[in-house]
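During the second year of the project, the team shifted from modelling isolated chains to modelling whole assemblies. The rationale, set out in the original proposal, was that interfaces cannot be judged from single-chain predictions alone. As a representative example for this report, we include one of the complexes processed in the last quarter. Its constituent sequences, exactly as entered into the pipeline, are reproduced here:
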Amino acid sequence: MADNIIVSIKGLDKFFDSDRGLVRAVQNLHLDIKENDFIVLLGPSGCGKTTTLRCVAGLERPNGGSIEIAGTLVDSVDKGEFVPPERRDIGMVFQSYAVWPHLNVYQNVALPLTDGSRRVPKDQVTDRVMESLRLVQLDGLDSRPVTDLSGGQQQRVALARAIVTKPQVLLMDEPLSNLDARLREEMRIELKKIATTAGVTTLYVTHDQGEALSLGDQICVMNEGKILQNGTPEEVYSKPPSLFVAEFVGEMNFIKGSVSGVDTIRSPLGERKFHFDRSYTVGENVTLAIRPQHLALEPLSDKVSDNPKGVISTKTYLGDSVLFEVQLSEIKVVIRASGDTLINEGQEVEIILSDKNWHIF
Amino acid sequence: MVILIAIVVVFVYISFQTGVIGTDDAEFSYDNYKDLFGDEFVFEVLENTLIFAIVTTIVSLFVGLPIAWITERTTIRPKALIYAMMTIGLLVPPVFVGMGWTFIAHERIGFINKMLMAVFDLNSGPINIENPAGMGLIEGLTLAPLAFVLSVQVFRTMNPALEEAAQTSGLTFKRTLMRVTLPLARPAILAALIYIFVIGLATFDIPAVIGLSSNIYVFSTYVYSEAFPPDGLPEYGIPAALGTAMILVALLLTVWYVQMLRTSEKYQVVTGKGYKATQIYIGKWAPACWSFICIYFFIGLLLPILLVCFMAFLPYITPPSLEALKIFSLVNFEQMNWEYVGRGIKNTVLLMLIVPPVILLVAFCVSWLVVRTKTKARYALEFGAFLPHTVPKVVMSLGALLLSLYIVNDYLPIYGTITLLIVVYVICWIPFGTRALNSSMIQIHKELEEAAYTSGLTMVRAIRKIMLPLLRPTMLSVWIWTGLLVYREMTIAVFLISQDNVTLPAIVWGRWTMGSPNVAAAITVLMMLALLPLMVLGWRFARKSRF
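Output from the structure prediction step:
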């Protein structure tokens, strides 16, 4: 098992001195990355995801714990081991692209091979650079100054430069955040393809849940220097273990209530039955959570039902779907319905609740 | 840096000594300070210095600031020409302008005065620049390009969105200027003001060239005349006491300056990515703006330099006229002590070759440590590199003189050698180098360097392959500028030269004070001719845009 783990982070700690005193950016973090996996670190700004990445790169020195890359111990605070970034078998793509403005496209990609610690014989440099450029679809632009390129193209140069040494692990620090929305979508698909084609283990940092869900084989949701959940995108989306993860990944309705019986919860939706996955004491305060697409609407009819009733306060048309904000007596909920619904703003509706898809925190 | 501290310490030490330095008579006392503050003449000197510095500051900002604004924020064309004119203004040694103005407006020999005296039948010239305000005016004119350079930065880096927001909020052009642009520029302008004021307090060359012969003293010339009296023993104690007080004043002002600079940086755009400041259509105001610039250029630079050139070809001082042309001759050049001048040329060239690379090396190391590392020492380094800026050149030179002559002479006989000049010059312009390198190193995104590390480059290689090429334009311009500054430096040279290590500006100074202004003018012409190609070079590199 140990032989296909490429990056192994154990008990990583990193502190920073700041004006507000000591900040614990990363706290006792454990993470194993398997060969060819695409791992995304997801979290709000300041959650320690970039710091973790920079520790793996060797751009920050940890205050505790150890990091191994491809079986080589690169950081160990206990053993006093620290391998500087240039001697780690990594490639890195930076948020600001960081393409060197005084070199052209070819020179940017070639420099790691000609001057880095992972040099190749001179006669192979051109082949390797061209191969790399072809992979990011920049072949033909190799003699252009990088400053002439668009943001998306500079991004590709940065990517080509990072993979040209065929590193054991590719590190990406919010690589798409400087691109505009449409280009970001394109590059997202592209990135995944390139990483798969190059067959490189990737550690990717982002605060964008859409990026995380679409790119990652595994997603680590982080907050306050800790990993809250490590799972597949499906797991992270459908089984958030905590309120924070539920709130951060995807849209979610939160309804406060309290346990009123063996399997019932009283809330603004009325007293209803739920499947409890653990035992609660009666009177305990809980938060109910459900995604907008797991709720449905019906125009108010004469039929007698115990469904909660409300009024549509806003309707946001998104083309393929519609987001309704429904005002109930005390709370508002957001409901996603298909785009061809005939329900309009101001209309009285009742909300159809199912037993499934509820999360209780 | 250690040397600098040694110089300052020696200086402060001497300020507490009475009696002949280096003998047993010397003893510790506060007498110098008592004498200093009990001396009415010293108060006169201080008053002169203050008037001089204030006039200098006002004049330079009055000229430099509007030109900077016009250049950066209007559609005036061609901008390159204004930059060229201002760069020339920065490069021409103030001494030359001072000499030129003496020929123009000296009470007795100035040609304007002679003309006016002839026309209106007066006994003495009505215009007189031999007073603190007059000298301040000339100094202000020579410092106007500096004021320009300092404020151009402000207008260029100001975030245009701030002004656009004012406009979209319905503010008129005038109101935007008054309520947004100027308040935003205020800290930076104030910083420029303090900067120039400090220079005004300490400057030597123009007060020396114009004022010394008429016994008008400011701080720097007073120190000089005490340390190098025409007769009698040099007096170091009192000038040292005054200098110590001056260092304190300059230090306080510098602290204030740094604070202002910090405030102003908050307003600046951090990245220059794809933004362009909106420019005001100049239209019918163009001729007025150009007149302002050209009038400044003419009276501040062209006229005095023309006069100097004119005098260089005359055997004695004569007002410019057709008749004067008849006595035009090369006599000043022919009778020059070429052996002596040759030594001056040799030394000057030597200094220009050695000093800039040394400065670059030291400044690069300091800047890199300050900008790129997190060591605690970087604050000390930054402060140390800035310190020479607060120590007036006169004080530094005199301190170096005393240090080399009385303290280390026994085991390190560098007094009277070119080495001494090299050391002092390097210390003097390190702040210049670090400031330029700091600012362009900050502009180079840290990730560019980190990308090199993660690509497998060692630190040394990353610096060589990434940092140095990116910094090359700045390095080159620092190289050329320090070279030019060394070339024109008079103050330090005047204090530290002897027969062997004489430099060209010091020779000019010598001829001027020994009563042969025409010979001085002749050497000046030679210097300016040699300066021309250098100026073109300097101008090209000063303009070279950074990445």
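Chain B has one domain: 42-221+289-545. The radius of gyration of chain B is 24 Å.
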